[in-house]
Amino acid sequence: MRTNRRTLLRTLGAAALAGAAGCLADTSSAPGDSPDGTGSDDPQDLSFETHSYRANTLVVEDGIAPDATGDRYATVLTEANGADQFVSGALDDATRTFVDETDFAAQDLLVVQTYLSSISTEFGLDSVARAGTELRVSATIDEADMGAQAVTYETVLARVESGERAPETVSLGVGGGSPETYAVEAPTSVDHEAVHARHTGALYDDGLTVSGGQGPHLRVRTLTSADAFSLDGQSDVAAFVEGTDFASQAIVALEKQVPNACESLAATTVEQGRRLRVHAAVEEKESMCTQQVQISSLLVRVPAESLNGRTVAGVVTGTDGSERAVLARQ
After folding, report:
1. How far is CA 212 from CA 43, 90, 219, in A?
2. Does residue 96 carry a pLDDT above 80?
3. Which of 31, 99, 215, 299 could form a disulfide with 161 if both were Cys (CB 3.0 to 4.6 A apart)?
4. Does the reported pTM lie above 0.85?
5. Burial letters for 275-298: b for 16+ Cβ neighbours within 10 Å, e otherwise?
6. What is the pLDDT of residues 269-316, one digit of tens each?
7. Helix or strand or coil: residue 127?
8. Spatial contact of 307 and 329, defined as CB atoms under 8 Å apart
């Protein structure tokens, strides 16, 4: 079960790049919606404490992707949508601690992400203000004159005191430029059905195989036609595909290479926000299994409308409680 507080985040060794220490910025104004408590939309400066983290992987489920050149993203995590938006296996110890020590009963966690073209480029928040249900954020990028041209992605987390009303948008201005507005989207549950299969060859066009033991070990794909499948010897999967009305439904295939038949995938939740997110957990049988590499495939039937304009993210929780995420190919 996924909880609002990530109390089960575990140390995962070299799961991602090291995070940078945060900084504290104080302001003299009260952090509420208005000094007199009337809920005025006049901007009120907020004090905030930040923590920065760089990683070339998906850190936030709805956040910028590793191939999102030039992209930025901003959202606010509150008690309602919680810290379970982070991909736990992508965080280092310092970032996990910062998230875990955020008091979501009294604080909101602002998340700002940006693409950087150089490891020497600096990105930081200058100010945060609340105007009704909008957080207005000003940030600065300091481009290095000299520095290795290596693509990286920076995530800045900022704790701010919760207001009377939950934030609905974040307005992000960088370097004095025109601000961009990002909607704060709390994920909603999506009805789904699922079937599991083990195999060595591809279940569908360009499906994951164990040929030569090479290639990716985790993949997610969206399938919108029965013609894409090759289902010889897979009676349960064939019945599942035949029972799918592709005029109003689609199938998301989440596949993982596993060492033996004792390991399989089980669907836990499907949610839609900025992305459609399929969550699954690795399950292991308590029995002896012959070591034979296989593909564990989870086919998840979802309403076609849940895919409208959304990329699909597959998030897999391992037996150690850590998470890995993969995006569907564009």
Report:
1. 60, 28, 17
2. yes
3. 31
4. no
5. bbbbbbbbeeeeeeeeeeebbbbb
6. 999 999 999 999 999 887 778 788 889 999 999 999 999 989 999 999
7. strand
8. no
Q: 3-state DSSP helix/strand/coil percent for the chain, to nearest 5?
A: 10, 45, 45
pLDDT at 211: 66
Q: What is the DSSP letter of 305?
A: G
DSSP assignment of 258-277: EEETTEEEEEEEEEESSSEE
Instruction: Using pLDDT thresholds of 50, 70 and 90, give the confidence band for residue 116.
Output: confident
- Distances in Å between the Cα of 52 and the Cα atoms of 76, 144, 193 are 16, 18, 39
Which residues fall within 8 angstroms of residue 179, CB to CB, at 6 or more apart? 136, 171, 172, 173
Separation of alpha carbons 238 and 242, rounded Å: 6
Tell me the residue length of the chain.
330
Give the model confidence (pLDDT) of 139-168 as tens digits.
999 876 665 667 788 999 999 999 999 999
**DSSP assignment, residue 288?**
-
Q: What is the pLDDT of residue 308?
A: 93
Strand partners, 15: none
* Element holding 95 (H helix, E strand): helix 93-100
